[in-house]
Amino acid sequence: MTSPYAKELQIALLAVQRATILTKRVFHEKAKGATSKDDKSPVTIGDFGAQALIISALQHNFPTDEIVAEEEADVLRENAGLRQQIWDLVRETRLEDGEAEGLLGGGVGSEEKMLEFIDGGKSKGGNKGRIWAIDPIDGTKGFLRGGQYAVCLGLMVDGDVKVGVLGCPNLPVDDSVSLDAKTGQDQSDEEGKGVVFGAVEGQGATSRPMSKGKLQDSKPIAMKKVEDIAQATFCESVEAGHSNQDDSVKIAQLLGITKPSVRMDSQAKYGSIARGAGDLYLRLPVNKNYQEKIWDHTAGDLIVREAGGLVTDTEGSRLDFSVGRTLAANKGVVAAPKAVHMKVLDAVKSVLSSK
Fold it and tell me: Is 47 a catalytic residue?
C-alpha cells in the first residue's frame, strides 16, 4: 500500500530539483561576479523562472490545489526584455531523466503559459483544503553573494503542513559536516554540494544528493542530541533586519553558549539543524508589527519537527499556517531538539520580557 502523500512528496522533490537547475544556471551566468551588489535582476530572473517551473509541475499533477507564491507576472508583461530572459531559461530547463521530466508534465509550452503559471500563486491561504506554499529563491541576498539559499515547497491540508521539501544547492551533501562561520558565506554548488531535504507528516525527514535527473537515494536525518546546551551551535539570519541579533547574543549568554552564532540566509538553517549540522535556530522579532510569510517557514518547520525537533514562536506556540499568507498569529521562531527546546524558550522569554 502506498504511504499517504507519496505522490505529493515525489512530485515536490522533482519539482524543486528541476527548479534548482535553473537557479544554479542563473547564479553562474548572471549573479556570480555581478559588478553591482545593488543589481537585483539575477534574483528576479531566478525567482520568476523557478516559480513558473514549480507551478507548472503542481498544476499538471494536482490541478485543483491552491498555491500561495510570492511573485506575480504583471511586471513581466510590461518588460519584454526581462520576460525574454526568463522565458529563454524556462524553455531550456528540464530534468535529464525523461521519465522524471514526464512526471512533472514536461516543459512549459509557451511564453504566455509561463506568465499564467507565475500568476498561479495568488491563493489567500487559510484553513480549508490543499494549499501549496512556494518560495522559489529563499535567501535572495545569500543567492547574490554566494552564500546559502533554498528553493522551498510545502503542502498544507486544512492548515496543517503535510509535505515539505527544501533544495539547498550550496550546502554539503554530507549530513555529518558541522556548520561553521564559513557555511553562510563564499559558497558555491561545486562537487559535493547540493542537498534536497524532504518530509511527510508522521513519516520522518530525509536528505538526498541533488541531481539533474531522477531522484537519488535518500537517507533518514535526525537532530543531534544536545548533551550540554553550552556546547550547542545556533543559527540565525545574516540580515539584522530579519532577526534581532543583539537579543540572540544575550540568549546565548544565558544558556552559556560561547561559540559565535552561524549566520546563514534562507531555510537552509532549518535543514542544517534537522540533520544535526547545527542545533538551534532563532529568529527573533525586530519589530512588533512584522508578520512572517508562510512560504519562509512551511517546509522547514515540518522537516525539523519530523527530524525530532520542536518549532514554536517566542511564546511557545506552534507556528500557525492556517490564518492566511502570513504567520499573523506568531512572533519569531525558536527551533531546537525537543529535549532542550523548553530551556531555550525560557532563555528567549527571559531576554524578550526584560526589554
Answer: yes
3-state secondary structure 14-37: HHHHHHHHHHHHHHHHHHCCCCCC
Q: What burial class does residue 312 get, using C-beta atoms within 10 Å of its C-beta: 0-12 exposed, 13-18 middle, 19+ buried?
A: buried
Note the pLDDT tens digit of each residue in 265-321. 999 999 999 999 999 999 998 888 899 999 999 999 999 999 999 999 999 999 999
Query: Which grid cell is 153?
Result: 515547497
DSSP state of 257: -
How many CB atoms are closer than 10 A to CB 263? 21
Q: Is the pLDDT of residue 38 over 70?
A: no
Is residue 20 part of the annotated active site? The answer reads no
Query: Is residue 186 within 8 Å of residue 264, measured between CB atoms?
Result: no
Task: Report the C-alpha gap between 269 and 295 in whole angstroms.
Answer: 14
Task: Select which of 20, 23, 140, 233 is catalytic.
Answer: 140
Q: Determine which helix (DSSP H) or strand (DSSP E) holds 57, and give its type and residue range.
A: helix 41-61
- pTM of the complete model: 0.95
Cell of 192: 559535493
* SS3 (DSSP) at 225: coil
Mean pLDDT (the chain, rounded): 93
Q: How far, in Å, CA of 74 to CA of 125, rounded? A: 21
Residue listed under C-alpha cell 535518500: 218
Per-residue 3-state assignment (H helix, E strand, C coil) for 182-214: HHHCCCCCCCCEEEEEEEECCCCEEEEECCCCC
Q: Which long-range contacts (CB under 8 A, 24 or more apart) does 218-222 make?
A: 219/175, 221/175, 221/197, 221/274, 221/275, 221/276, 221/307, 222/274, 222/275, 222/276, 222/307, 222/308
Order of strands, sheet of 262-263, starting from the edge strand that comes earlier in the sequence: 262-263, 234-236, 280-283, 333-337, 309-312
Question: Of 20, 23, 44, 47, which residue is the catalytic one?
Answer: 47
Q: How many CB atoms lie within 10 A of CB 110?
A: 11
User: pLDDT (tens digit, 9 = 90+) per residue, 52-64?
Assistant: 999 999 999 999 9
What's residue 285's pLDDT? Answer: 86
